[in-house]
User: Which sequence fits this backbone?
């Protein structure tokens, strides 16, 4: 569903503009560089997926396949939100909602207080966002409020992963913790798993440790070196298909996902 669809307009509590909000993430050097990089969303997201420590080879996540299985091939008649989307356009018919007015953002809004009516949304995607939300429990309540009974939610979030501001970094969620808070907010978990395995965790730790050693206390140099060593240590990800076979892989995974359904 597109924002021009009358059904979309009917889902809103009141008419809103797709413009406004903050145009960029403020603060640190890392945030300014990230904001600059996101001006080229295709390149940014390609690098994030291929050399970043959040996606292992052989994981069973595959967002686009998940969307197809949950919502079918044609989703133009369904209202699906990508909360905290950044610059990533998953599908032309999925509505991007973000606090910052990046390219590809359709609705600029606080995702803890969205402009949608109760029970008006068919599906929600929330990738790599929870750690940056100070009022995370409020976000779960908001997602439960706007989802229809039977509506689906897909969440991906870091677990064993270094601090990364965008513009802030508040929390880490365990598999058990995510399932608990979803249950508390009237969801039933349908599937959970790993997107970034133990070798992604090792890559993330090593790239920060080596950046710390060679930055000599310079914050600007530290951030640049983190990106450099991310590429250097990215071949470690090739080993993850083996480590994902272990029943203990979740205990030290870099990123996890949960798929849940709002109860009737």
Assistant:
């Amino acid at each position: 569903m597109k924002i021009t669809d009358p059904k979309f307009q009917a889902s809103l509590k009141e008419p809103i503009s797709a413009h406004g909000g903050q145009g960029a993430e403020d603060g640190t050097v890392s945030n300014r560089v990230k904001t600059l990089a996101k001006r080229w969303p295709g390149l940014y997201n390609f690098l994030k997926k291929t050399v970043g420590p959040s996606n292992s080879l052989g994981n069973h996540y595959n967002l686009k396949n998940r969307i197809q299985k949950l919502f079918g091939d044609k989703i133009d008649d369904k209202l699906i939100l990508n909360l905290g989307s950044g610059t990533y356009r998953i599908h032309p018919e999925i509505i991007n909602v973000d606090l910052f007015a990046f390219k590809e953002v359709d609705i600029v809004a606080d995702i803890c207080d969205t402009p949608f009516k109760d029970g008006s949304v068919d599906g929600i995607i929330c990738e790599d966002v929870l750690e940056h939300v100070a009022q995370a429990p409020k976000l779960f309540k908001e997602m439960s409020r706007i989802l229809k009974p039977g509506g689906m939610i897909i969440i991906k979030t870091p677990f064993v992963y270094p601090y990364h501001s965008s513009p802030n970094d508040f929390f880490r969620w365990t598999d058990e913790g995510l399932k608990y808070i979803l249950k508390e907010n009237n969801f039933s978990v349908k599937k959970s798993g790993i997107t970034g395995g133990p070798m992604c965790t090792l890559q993330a730790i090593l790239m920060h440790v080596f950046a710390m050693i060679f930055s000599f206390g310079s914050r600007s140099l530290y951030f640049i070196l983190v990106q450099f060593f991310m590429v250097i240590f990215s071949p470690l990800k090739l080993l993850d298909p083996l480590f994902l076979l272990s029943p203990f892989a979740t205990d030290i995974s870099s990123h996890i996902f949960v798929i849940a359904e709002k109860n009737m």
